Amino acid sequence: MDAQAPAVSTHQQPRFYAARLAGTKVFDPIGDAVATIRDVVVLPRSHAEARAVGFVVEVGAKRRVFLPITRVTSISPGQVISSGVLNVRRFEKRTGELLVIGDLLDRVVTLSDGSGEAIVQDIAMDEDRHHDWEVSRLYLRRRKRGSTLGRLVSRGETMTASLSEVAGLWGTPAEQSAHLLAASYQDLNPADLADVLTELEPKRRIELARELDDERLADVLEELPEDARVELIRGLDAKRAADVLDEMDPDDAADLVQELPDTLASQLLNLMEPEEAEDVRRLLAYDEYTAGGMMTTEPLLVAPETPVATCLAMISREELHAALASTVHVCRSPLETPTGRLLGIVHFQQLLRERPDRPVGELLGPDRIAVSPSAPLSEVTREMATYNLVSIPVIDEDGRLLGAVTVDDVLDHVLPEDWREEDEPPTSTGQIDLSEIARATARETTTSTAGDTGSETAKE
């Protein structure tokens, strides 16, 4: 360990200190200032040094967005040069990511030589031969021993150290392990990550769930068996649990709330965003195996004068589930459920065949296929099968749209409750067992052949 301040490095490799870089201007290739550095995003790795994946930069009116490090061509004191256009989507941490300034500065680490603890003051990044920026050195201030007053009056000595010379930078051993585990699963889709969670011990499952952001955890909860998702939501603090419910589809959130104890369910509904909570409460009023209990209250809604091009832009949104994106519901105002009168639905394939400026209301046929909220599961499945629908509207007695039931909602209710936990689900009514047909055919052929042989023998 070196007792020194983070002076400008004479190191052969390019290096920057994260805290000292904060406030630096980002310039585009023609020299215009386009943003200001506010933080560095790093990704810890279990078998390699943590690496920087990008910067949190501030643009316009205090809006913070993500600048990938792959779009940075130069980092030097006073300026960062970017090669591309900034994505103005608001920055959100992905699974496994940490902010140097927001998460790691002022963190207390333990010195591996046994000499005590130190506080992280800054973190250095070095560029390797692959042009990746890796966490290389920590600038630390040793914690003074003695009374509280003595520690306040006398500041500890400063030093630099490598990551191998300290412990606890990424948190406690349990936090660090869960954090690295979450990072290793960041590319899994929600259904596969749900399978991983079900294989973990309950305590470990909750630790991993706490590392996921709200949207990611919401997607995973929708894929988990009933007992596992109840366990996870109860393992979170109430405010975090309510935030996760806000991110879930209303029908899935209602299913989960219905499985919770009444006191906890009421508490979480009161902590949720009012609009989201209202959607969930409306769904809780219906029986689970009716159209009202299965529907989502957030289908795609447009007015009849909406151009086809606008509808196509709506269904192209990445966060929209495929089943919901399949159908546009054309309604009278208001365009929030419960809407004005439902005029009809248009499938996305039909939109693709029309000219972009044509009003969607002109595409509606004379038939209006829909079910009431009290329609049982059997009626919903029959109507969807009859008309080859991926989703079906749910309307009240006045023809107002309340929501839509999608094919994935139907499958969740048709399959056995524990279907997610079964390795080999048993054959259900209506399935065709081809292997059994093959065996039966073989038996009939053998019997027939034996009969023919017997007949020929008798003739002889």
Structural notes for this entry:
It is a single chain. By secondary structure, this protein is an alpha+beta fold. It folds into three domains: 15-167, SH3 type barrels; 188-285, MgtE N-terminal domain-like (MgtE N-terminal fold); 294-413, CBS-domain (Roll), CATH 3.10.580.10. Helix content is 37%, strand content 22%. It has helices at residues 18-21, 100-104, 148-153, 173-184, 190-199, 202-211, 214-221, 226-235, 238-247, 250-259, 262-271, 274-284, 291-294, 308-315, 322-325, 348-352, 377-386, 407-414, 434-459; strands at 15-17, 25-27, 33-43, 51-59, 63-68, 72-76, 79-82, 98-99, 108-111, 117-127, 133-142, 158-161, 166-167, 300-302, 327-331, 342-347, 391-395, 401-406. Strands 2, 3, 4, 5, 6, 7 and 8 form a seven-stranded mixed β-sheet that branches. Strands 1, 9, 10, 11, 12 and 13 form a six-stranded antiparallel β-sheet that branches. A hairpin with a 2-residue loop joins strand 6 (72-76) and strand 7 (79-82). It is globular and about 80 Å long. The relative contact order is 0.07.
Stated plainly, the CATH topology of the largest domain is called: SH3 type barrels
Number of strands: 18
> What does the overall shape look like?
globular
Output the CATH homologous superfamily of the largest domain: PRC-barrel domain
Terminal CA distance reads 103 Å
Task: Kindly estimate the percentage of residues that lie in beta strands according to DSSP.
Answer: 15-25%
Q: Any key phrases for this structure?
A:
MgtE N-terminal fold; single chain; CBS-domain; SH3 type barrels; 3 domains; 37% helix; disordered C terminus
